[in-house]
Amino acid sequence: MSSNPLKLLPLLALAGCGFSPLYGQSGTQTVAQQLDSVAVANIPERTGQMLRLSLETALHAAGAPTQELYSLNVTYSIATAGIGVQEDTATTRNRLSATANWSLAPIGTPGAPLATGTASTEDAANIIDQQYFALTLETDTVNQQLADQLAAQITAQVAAYFETHPNAG
Hints:
Strand 3, helix 3 and strand 4 form a beta-alpha-beta unit. This protein is of the alpha+beta class. Helix 3 packs across helix 4.
C-alpha cells in the first residue's frame, strides 16, 4: 500500500479548529472512565433486559465497572403499528417505534438527577405467512437492533454530559 499525504489534511484541519474527541481527556478523568463508572438499573420486560445489556456493553468498554458512581435509570417502551395492510385487513408488516427516557444520578441520590434525556428509533418487521418460530426470531432480532440503536444514542448523550461536566457528581 502506498501512503498519500493528502489523506492526512482533514485530520490536520480538525486539529487546527479546536476539535477534541468526545471520549478524550476531560478535566481529571477521561469521559471513557466516567462512562465506566455508570451502573445501569434494571429495566422491566424482556426488551428492557435487552436494552440494559446493550447499554452495559456500550458504557463499559473495559468490562464491568470497578467503581460505580452513577446510576442510569431508563424507562423503555415499544409501540407497534401495522404499516402493510392488505385488502382483507391482514397486516403484513409492522413498524416498531422504541422510546427510552433516561436519567443519570449519583449513586444513593436517585431523586437528584444530573442529566436526563430521550432516545428514540424505529425499525420494521415482515409478518407475511411466517411460522411462529420464524416470526419470534425476526421480532427478537428487531428488538435487539432497537436496543442497540438506543444504547448508542444514550451512551453518546451521557458522554456529551460528562464532556461538558468533567467533575460531575
